[in-house]
Structures are given as structure tokens and as C-alpha cells.
Fold these 2 entries.
Entry 1:
Amino acid sequence: MLLLTSRDNPNIKNVVKLKKNARFRKQTGSFIAEGLRVCVDAMLSNAQIEALFVTNQALEKYAEQIDKLASYSVKSFTLAPELFELISDTETPQGVLCVIKTLDKTLQFGKINNGGKYLALDNVQDPSNLGTILRSAEAFGISGIILSSDCCDIYSPKVVRGSMGAIFRLPFMVCDSIRAFLEDNPQLDSYAAVVDSSADKITELSFCDSCVAIIGNEGNGIKKETLEACSHRFTIPMAGNAESLNASVAASIIIWEMIK
Amino acid sequence: MLLLTSRDNPNIKNVVKLKKNARFRKQTGSFIAEGLRVCVDAMLSNAQIEALFVTNQALEKYAEQIDKLASYSVKSFTLAPELFELISDTETPQGVLCVIKTLDKTLQFGKINNGGKYLALDNVQDPSNLGTILRSAEAFGISGIILSSDCCDIYSPKVVRGSMGAIFRLPFMVCDSIRAFLEDNPQLDSYAAVVDSSADKITELSFCDSCVAIIGNEGNGIKKETLEACSHRFTIPMAGNAESLNASVAASIIIWEMIK
């Protein structure tokens, strides 16, 4: 492993830019994953790891796993904790980070014609919410996730970390608009989640075997044009204030009810 | 309203200490709530507001509501945005914060003998999780929350904010240990949430009208001594990795299944 000693090293600068800049992630087709577990998850899911960065402390502590990561990765570097802090996105860095090629999941969506239960996210903005939604979707067995192009970047470090590796294992695709996706996939029955006590209660629905539930923006809900293209509207009945659920909790309850 | 201009003003120093220090909150019997909505929630729930702090910008923007808050509060102060940043716990402060007397909810728990569905938290550590759990508990209509004394402080600013005001409306109590609480309340049937595929599936349970579900620590689950005092064990069935749910999502699914 090569030792990096300068903050001006182009490899370091590249990671800092990948951490902060969604457009740069898109241009270069790479993103970062931080933490031993999520890096190992990436390897086990056959993601292409372009570079591995570890501190000597991490190298000693997790020798065996880092050895495997290093031989799997195209390049690998060690660096001092002070330099690692520059590339890290966490408050107490574990000292393991890798740069990964963005994932091509188009093929996984080929089987969408055969049915399955999908989740579509219309302009979801908070990376912590998106990460948690991916995690719940995997835990409960969603077939795949569709994101509108105006959702927050699925490759942002917070999403990757919050998903606990689900980003590597779960089929997902980004499309121009959820409305266009629904029009292209009329075989899927569509259910829009709304905050409206007159809508059908989720507890009284039965989701069919080929369906998609649509979840909207944290503040403004589903776009009007998307809503018009949905066949059903439903709501999560609540005791108190109708808007009082955390967005990732609401999404997780919906996934749970779709699947169980 | 009094204008505060110095960071050495004892009122400012008091808030900074309340923000950072759980022991100081306990000693003084007060805590802080930040943001217009949560401060108004406190007032509407008849909490005792000891002091209100607002920037002039907030005063102009939310004149009517801040007037009401100011006449309800014992003391009220204006201060410059630079000073407000000192007392604020958020990245982009709204400019409204109040100091509130800790809530005495003992009385609300008097009716526990008449039944109801309760949630007990055994050493839950993350303030964001606790805030979200309170929010879900209120939304779905839980009768009350019991916290072990080693949970994170319910009055920490992150919990208050994350609860979206539920902390003011939801009955809760802190007890020495969940085991002692269960032994003191044999009228409640107790259900321990565990990660164990051989436990009863939550989907196959029926929670009776007088019951309590117990949720454990994010990493280590429920304490052994607590588990021994529970009558039932149950689990949330999952498709993938058995540990792959966010703690507040798992708690919310449990609340949802208990209540619906």
C-alpha cells in the first residue's frame, strides 16, 4: 500500500470532491463508502472498488478484512489520521473508506415485467431518510426502488452509510419522472401515499402482486402530475396530528404493510 | 423584551449549559426547546416556559405568535443572530428558543391500572431514535412511555426537536429499571422485542388491552434481567439480514402493530 502524506495529493483531493459534490460523482461515475462493514458489503456485492484508504490504526485492528479489501481494490493507500479526517464524512472516523464505481442496476430491472412489489420516491430530499428507506426496503423484501431524478443523490455519503449496505444489494433506478415511469409500466398497479383522512386506509388495502407504492417529498408530498397518474390513493391512519410521522418511518410502515 | 448583548450574560450562559449538560438539566429542573412550532406546542400543552429568546428577525417574521409566547413566558429576551447561534442547537437557527420546566407526568400514569398499551425503552441511547419513537408513539396512540434511567436524557435538545412536540403531550415516566416497573405492574402483559428468528412473529401476536412492549438498546438489545421478567418474546420477521432495521423504524413498526 502506498503511503499518502500530503493533503495536496490528487487522490486525496479526488475523494474530498466526491464526498462533497453530487455533480462530480455523476461526472466521474464514482462515489465513496465509509466504514469497514459497508466497504466489505461493497466487495461481497461485487461492486468495483477503485481505491481503498485506511489509517495504520485501522490496518492493525482489522488486518484480515483490510487485506482482502486491498487485494480486491484497484489501488490502496494508507494515510495518517489527520489526513483521513479530510476525506471522512463522520465525526469519529473508523479509518476505512473506499471509492466505488457507480452501480449499473438497469439489468436487475429487466424482470419488472414479471411483477413484484416496488417503491417509487417522488422528490424525497433528505439523505438520512433515503438511507433508512433503502435499509427498510431490503429488510422487508421490496423488489426494487425507483427514484425521480429530483430526489437527493442516492450516492451521497449519508445515504450510503444510512442504507447499511442495502444500496449494493437492492435493485434501484433513477428515472426522469415517476409519472413517466408509471406510464411506461402499466402492468404495475400504483398506490399513492397521501396525508388525507378521506383516502383509503392502508389497513384496508390489499396490494396486488405487481404493484408500486409512491412516496412523496417530506414537506409537499407527491407531485400533482404524479398523483394524476396513480390508480389508488391511501393514507396511514393516525391518532393525533395527521402530519406527525417521520418520513422514513411512514415509508417503512408502507413497505411493511405492502409485503407482510 | 430585554435586549441581551453580551455572551457573558448569565441568561445566555444558563441556556448554553442547559443545551450541553444533562446533569445541569436535572439539577435545575429545566430544559430547552428550539423552533417556533415546538415552543408554541409547549405553550398549548401548558408547560411552564421560564424564558423566551428570539432574534429581531424572528420577531418581525412571526410577530403574532411570538407576542403570545412572550406574554405566556416568565421572562423574554431579544438578541442578535450571532448571540443566538451560541444558544442554538441547529445548523440554521430559526431564532426562537425557550427554557421550560421539566414536565411532571407522574399523575398521568395514575390510570395505568385501568389498562392501556405502553412502550418501555430499556437503555435506548440515541437521541434521534428516542425523538422519533416519541413522535410515532403519539401518532399511533400509545398510552404512555416508560424509560429506564440509563436511556439517553429525554430532555436533550435533539429528543425534544425530533419528537415534534410529542414530548409535551405524551405521558412518560423514567424508572430505575424496566424489570422493577414490570414487577410493580403485573396487570400489564409484557412483550419483549428480540432479534431471534425462533421467537413468535409479531404478525401472529395479538396484543391484549393491558400490555407493554419492551424495546432494547440499539446494539445490545434488552438486558437479560429485563428479558427474564417478560411473559412473551416476539420478533419482526425480515427478508434479508436480521439486524437490518433502523432502531426507530423497528420501534415504530412494533407500535403500529400493537395499536392498529
Entry 2:
Amino acid sequence: MSREYSRQLAQIALGKHKAQLVFKNAQVIQVFTNEILTADIAVQDGIIIGVGRYQGEAEIDLSGKYVCPGFIDAHLHLESTLVNPGELILQAGLTGTTTFIVDPHEAANVAGTAGIDYILSETEDTEANVYVMIPSCVPSGPNEDNGHHLTIAEMRQYLEHPRVLGLGEVMDCQAVLDGEDQMLEKLRLFGSKKLDGHAGYLGEKETGCYALSGIQTDHECCTYEDALREMRTGMQILIREGTGAKNLEGILTGIIDNQIPCHQLAFCTDDKHIEDIREQGHISYNVRRAIELGMPPIEAIKIATLYPAKCYGLKHLGAIAPGYQADLLVFSDMEEIKVEAVYYKGKRLDPTKHRHRNIPAELRDTVHIKWKGREELRLFLQGTESPVIELVPGQILTRNIRERVNVQQGEFIADQVYQKLVVLERHHGTGKKEMGIVKGFFLQNGAIASTVAHDSHNLIAVGDNDEDMCRAIEALIKCGGGYVVVESGKEPLILPLEIMGLISTWDYEQVSKMTRQMLVVAHKMGVPADVDPFITLSFLSLPVIPQVRLTTRGLYDVMKGNFII
Amino acid sequence: MSREYSRQLAQIALGKHKAQLVFKNAQVIQVFTNEILTADIAVQDGIIIGVGRYQGEAEIDLSGKYVCPGFIDAHLHLESTLVNPGELILQAGLTGTTTFIVDPHEAANVAGTAGIDYILSETEDTEANVYVMIPSCVPSGPNEDNGHHLTIAEMRQYLEHPRVLGLGEVMDCQAVLDGEDQMLEKLRLFGSKKLDGHAGYLGEKETGCYALSGIQTDHECCTYEDALREMRTGMQILIREGTGAKNLEGILTGIIDNQIPCHQLAFCTDDKHIEDIREQGHISYNVRRAIELGMPPIEAIKIATLYPAKCYGLKHLGAIAPGYQADLLVFSDMEEIKVEAVYYKGKRLDPTKHRHRNIPAELRDTVHIKWKGREELRLFLQGTESPVIELVPGQILTRNIRERVNVQQGEFIADQVYQKLVVLERHHGTGKKEMGIVKGFFLQNGAIASTVAHDSHNLIAVGDNDEDMCRAIEALIKCGGGYVVVESGKEPLILPLEIMGLISTWDYEQVSKMTRQMLVVAHKMGVPADVDPFITLSFLSLPVIPQVRLTTRGLYDVMKGNFII
């Protein structure tokens, strides 16, 4: 900033020159003092210059309206919503989230630094503040066949990036407690920045040990007790309310009842589908829910603004005061917080604005499978008893059971109860392939497949016959990844996710329309009404969630920490 | 920290190895959750490793005792108390202050970088955390003859010092509002660090403009209204309760009554005499006073611990949690907070420990006056009317008056009402000298002189006869600066302040004894009982406090901003 420009801003602040833009007569939510002040907000070049009585070249009258700082999502994955980052940011932005602290964990698992660079470049000039935490655990474990092993040397490249705030969710808690060399090196490397955690379930001493390593936040707490145990160590609790995980009520009820101060809290969504964002709101929904539970409205707003800004060292965000960025939300009711207008750097968000959908060449062609055809899907068993993955209704947990299944001439034949599951390594064409049997999907006369399968994002398919499964797999190989639903005898429904096999180039409306259509067909084919087959599939290969998972290396017993022979 | 050592700490945190030291069964003040938890505190190498149930090689039972984090003084001047920094830190430390954020403003005015280096080196291995803010306004104004003009190049040298947190109190508010080049450069230079303010009295727009410059704290607020106006800009209010300025009740009464949140507050003393520290406590007194006024005790403790630690980015201080430094205070009563034991890095403070009193050679001989003798003190007037500096009882303010005084053959003769005041440039032997007439001192048959005179610290003397004034001045020239009281016909009382003319090498007990003795004599000679002649003298040359001051360049009208011809 030139000195001349500094002096010009000072003149505006002193009221000697007009500001470019003044919001007049607003009810300003004052996060530093918990007041609501009737005042004008003077803005120059996207920065708040003064709060008081001001005149502007342009003026917007906000008489009778409340204004608060833009909301902050303290932890989310932009690439988990099928749509381009710009799509998600715009839709969430329109509901009041102006700052996104993202962990490009999925992108890194598929494409390494190219995936991280994609998230950075796609968010470079979005109408939002987007910060990045560098993924800490890629791959998520030693037995994973993912697209890229993110090395410490690669992580180091991002240390000086102005939008990189620190290290992404440290999921490998045991490595922290054991003080494994690689983990200690990552923690040291990002030690002067922010270290995000992922440890809601640890015991008291383990939680303390985890915090001692320097990890300062966690978004995995599900209950008040989890949150309290971690808050006592000084960790910031990022209260998550997304599409899948909903932890807000469980945590905030206890916080409110026990009058625990809120300065160690923040809000996040982790993963929230765009349809849910449009229906409920994004961080605005967390704020509204908190108020419904009895949180004083200004305190709920501070959990969405000032506290995360302070936690992540974002000195220019989270408040309406001189020098802060003019990210402002306008609403009429302190209980509902129904956001009527969103200003980012003093400019109103435009829902019709051109949305990015760049596809870097190296992220386009990421599905590489050594595929010989339908014969590959035959599953031969020793005897008629077999290990089975049983879905637990309403949860992403599974049960590790062993049951008698339909076997003909040594070959497993799917039926109404037991279907076939296959995972194919899809990054490097290694030909790695494992099959298993799943109970609880109830899929009849068809197959469903996806290249979104946490965290390694291999190709996963389920079906009750090899022909449809083969069609599904081949469709995904052909389109470069995506979702597919095959109903016997009919044309497959395909949602291409050309970008890393994770993200579509379509508008969210098209994505939404196709996924709805797919769900209708899947449920028609027998998938229980409360099961989203794609979400279920996406977790069936993640070997950190109890009790049993199928990966490219076999059936994994999560409880015992080994493969089932 | 080596990986092996990290693993060792983790093992202790997990309870698998004993810690060096465990405080058992304490009532731990939990600043993150506002709880009081019965727990053990495990300490290794001065760091808290765990809070819960632990066993130690050594154990200290604290059953029935409360433990809170060591207190932080967010702003003070170590060199304003006549004693060596180590003396002050020890005495304040014993009352519970374990962290000192100091501004070596006086030292810099006398000796520039040598003065700053002295404060840094004297505090290098004290049993306290001492951080330094680099003085921003040395000299304090363009018309000052101080010892050293601290250049931006010199300030830059301290940017990377691990104990330098930022820029010291920016007193020249007008330069900030006007955007003067030098000031903008200083603000830019320290812009990524903390910028301390000094602006309690500005109007609303001026306060906003001042905050816009990036200044983030202020310790000059006297009233709740001052504090609130600045808090709204996001500034942290360092509530001052020292020997001279007592702002705590004025500010906190309003904060409590209006339920303003406290996270934008901190405590400081600015200047507090060692006798007052020993009688009342230091920051512990601020905490106790806050509780007396109705502040919940844990919140009062947080204003002295967590909030200033967060404000100044001291991540390892201000809480009792894993990874935090084991600076701990033990007490028995949540209302009184009478500190019974102080642990710094897990070691109990030892009141008998050797105290530093190094005297760097370049700080020893700082009084250089071109002095020709008593003849220099003759004051000739045009007529019998003269400008007079009138003291305002009980305040450091003065009145600018013009009165008829005793003149014989054109020469002013002091009497019971009007005494002579002289200021001599004492740094560079320039011979600059100015005289004036003061009313309200009531000094008879003697003289008092000092080399402590804010901010330039020239030699200032007052007396009713030239002979005693001459003896006083010559005594200070001879001893290298200090305080002196001369009673006609008696041996002068001298407190040598050999270090920069500001600091004694004596123990505080000796200093205390001598200053008490001097006060007795001064009051016997007519100085009103409620006037400390040294404090009064020390401000009579500071041309920023209304209405009139005498400097080495003449009688200065503070209200008009010019010299009185």
C-alpha cells in the first residue's frame, strides 16, 4: 500500500472525503462488544474504512436491516460435492459463507500436487476467501493403493503460499501418539502454521498427547463430552453440521447448559451437498440451529465469524471494523438469520455470474484400469460359507459377519440378500482387484458403480449380476470416472466426473437432476429408501471405519487391523 | 526438539513414563472452558505435559489449593522504577506476574539502541518471560533534545529478535492520522507484528482512523466510554492500574454493568513503583480489584492470562494445558487471589536469588552538561510580569498563567509562592538551558533536581535560591545522574542513578529507604504533602501534557503547540 493511498484512506476514515460505498443506517452486529449499533459502514476498495456516520459516492440504505460479518466454514472438502469448486462456493456464498478453509484431501489422493494446484487455481479468483490446508495423510494408510503418495518434499512446496494456512486434518492419530518419524516431520514442517486435527474419539490422556503435538483444532467431535475433553487442551472445536455428519446439537446443548464459553468454537460443514446447501443454507444453518438451541444470536454469529478468524489468524476477517474486509451479510431477523444479501469485498454476490469449469489436462484422464472383461468378475469360494460385509442401516458403519451364501460349482451367485462387491485399482492400471460379498444393499437386476471411494478413490461397484456390473465398470472407464447406474436391459445412467473421477464439469442443476434420477432408479431396483447407494459405496472401501471394508488389497478387518484371508 | 525427545514427551503424556514433576490434586483454573477441575499437572523441562492423573519423579501436593496460569503485564516500562530490571521483575514475579511486555522507551531516549540492548540483555535470563516492544517515538516530538534519535534503520535491527513482539506505544497520534511518511514507514515495518497504541482520548472517527492504521492495542483508556469506543474497532484494551494512572475501576465498572465480553481486554501497570508492588501486588492487584468490582473470578484471571497471550500471539502462555509453559500460581481463595507460590517454568521463584546489576560501560556516563556555575542560574525578566507554570493539585496537568513576580534590578528573585525552574540539556553537552517560574511547589530554602524527566530525560531542577540549585545540579553532574535534595546548609541527599541517569544499581530496599528520606526532607521544606516532587518534576518537561511545560528549548504552550516568547 503506497503512503499516498494510506493517507487517502485516512482522509475517508476521518470523514473528510467520501467513501466509494456507504451502507447507511444498518444495525451493525459488533462482535467485539456484543452490541448492535445503528451506524453507517464506509467501504473503499473492498475494505471497511469506518463505522459511524459517513457519506459515500454510492449509498445503500439498510434501515431496519441487520448486518453481520460474512460466515466462515472452518473445514470442508470442496471436491466432495461432485460439482466444480466455483459452483459450490457460489451456492454456499449466496447463503452467507464468504470464507472457506478447505482441505483438498480427495484431490491429493487422486492427483497429488496437481489436485492441490487445481483447488488453489480454481479458487484463486472466486468471490470468496478460500484458504487451503495441505493434506497430511495421503494415502490415508500404508495399505492403500491411491493415485499419489504425497511426499513431505511436495508438501513443503506449499509452505509459503499466501493462501495455505497449515496442515490438513491429521487422521493418523496413532502415528502422532507413537511419534512416527514421518508424522513428526510433517508436524514440524507446518509447526509455525495451523495444524488441523481429526480425533474426536480419543481418551483423555491420548487427547492430551495429541494436543501436545501442536494440533490445534478438531472437527470430529460428535458429543459435548468429546468437545469438552478437547477444549480443555486448548483445541478449537469446529462444530460440524454437514449432509452426513450432524454434530451441532450434540455439542451445543452441553455447551449452552453448562455455560461453557464459546471462544474455542467454530462452525464447519466438512461435507455438505449442494442440494442441502440450497435448501437449508450452509454455515448460516449452523448459526440458525445454534440460536434455536438457545445460544444468544450474537454469540452464534461470533462462532461463525470472529472466533474462527482469530483461530486461523485471519486478521482481516470476522468483524465489522476499520481495516476489515467488507464481507457483509444482510438480514431482517436476529433469530432466523435468513440471509437476504451477501457482499464480498463490498460487492454483492451475483448468482448469475459465470462459473468456472476449467479442466486441467492432467486431471482429465485419471481412470486407468487393466480390464479384460466380464470374466474378471467371477468369484470362486472355498465351500459355501464366506465373510460378508453387512451394512448397518442409517450409518456408515458395517458389520463383519460370516454367512452361508449361494454357491454353484464353486462360484458365488448373487441373490436378493447377498450382492457382489468389487474394487478395482484405477489410478495406475496395476490390475489390482478384490471382490467381496455385501448384505443390506438389496440391489436387484442391475449394478451401481463409482470412482468416488474414500480416501483412495478407486473404482467400486456393486451388483447382482456380472453383465450389468461389467457394463457399469466399462461405462466409467470410458467416461473417465463418475457415477453410473445400470438397470438390466436399459441404457446406463451416467454422471461423468471427468475431473479426477471426482468432479463434474456440469452446472449443479444438471448434476442434481442426474443424481436424483439415479436415486429413483436405484431405489426402484431395491436399494432401501434411506440408503444413498453412492455415499454408501464411497465409504465401503475406507479402511478406517469399523468393522470391515473392501480395498484393492482385500477384505480388511478394521478392528483387528489386518486383512481377512 | 529431536524426534526422540518428542516421543519421550508423548510417553509421559500417555502416562507410560513418570514426569519430572507433578503438581498433585490441584484445583486447576481452566481458562478455555471456565471450569475448575481437580487434577494433577505433569511437568517436564518446564512444559506442561498433561493435566489429569499423573505420577512424577517429584510430586508437590496442592490439595485444597487453586492453580492458575502466571499473570501477564501487557504493557510496562521496566526502567521507570529506579531499580534494575531484574529487581523489578523479581518483586513483581513474587506477586504472580510471570510475563512482562516492556517498552524500553526511556532507555531509548537516553541511549538509543544501547538502552534497548541493555533491557534485552538484562532480561535475557531472568525468571520471567520478558518481551520487548520497540519504541516508536524517540524522541517524542520534533522539538525535543533527547539523548538519541532512534532511526528506522536502528529499529529494523530488532525485527527478527525472538523476544521482540512489535512496535511500542504509538504516541504521535497526529502523525498517524496525517499519514506522515516516517510514521507510515514504522507502521509498515512492524506491520506483521503487534502495534501498540496510545490514544485513549481520540474522537470516534479519529479512533477508527488510528485503528485503520493497524494499531491493535491501547493502554491509555481512562473511562468505560474510551474503552468501548476503541473496543468497537477491534483494539485490545490494556487496562492500566499503576502507581500514577489508575484506570481499572473506571473501565471495568462499565464493562460489568453492560455485560461487554472480556476477550478484547488485558491488564497492565505501565508504571508501578516497587513499594506499591510489594504492598498491593502487581497484576494480581488488577485481578483482585476486578473481582471486587463484580467480575467473575475466572474471567478476571483470563484478562490477566489467556486474552493477552492470544492478543500478543504468545501461544505457549496463558493457560494450563499440554504444551503450555509451566508458569503457575498457587492460591487458596478465589476472591482474594493472594498468591502463595509462583512457579516459572515449573521452578518455584526464589526471593533470595542473586539479582542482576550489570552496568554496561556506555550507559554509565550519560550526563554531559556544559556547566559554568551558579551564574548560569540568573533569570532576568522584562518588567515584573512573567509567564508562570502553575501546578494543579493532585494531577500532572499544569496551568499556563501570567503573574506579577518578585523582580529586583531586572532579575527574578524566588519567594514562597514562585520558585525557579531550570532544564539543562544533559546528553550532548550542547549548553542548551532554559529557565522558568513555577507556582505550587512551595519549596523553601533548598533545591531538588533529577535526571529523570520524560521523555527526553534532561536535567531538571527547582529551587528558591541559586546556591542550592547549583549544588543540586553539580551533585548530579558528579554522580552521573540521579535524584538530589538539597536543604540549605546541609549535606545533599543523593540517589545516584548511574545507569543512564534513570536506574540505580542499589537493591530496591536501599532505593526505597533513600527516596523515603528525600520525601521527608522535601515535605519539611514546604512541598505539599500530596506532591511527590520527583514525579512532578519528571513530567514538567514533557511537552504533550497540557497546558504548559519547560523544555531545553523554552516554555512550551501545549495547547497552542508553540513556544512562549
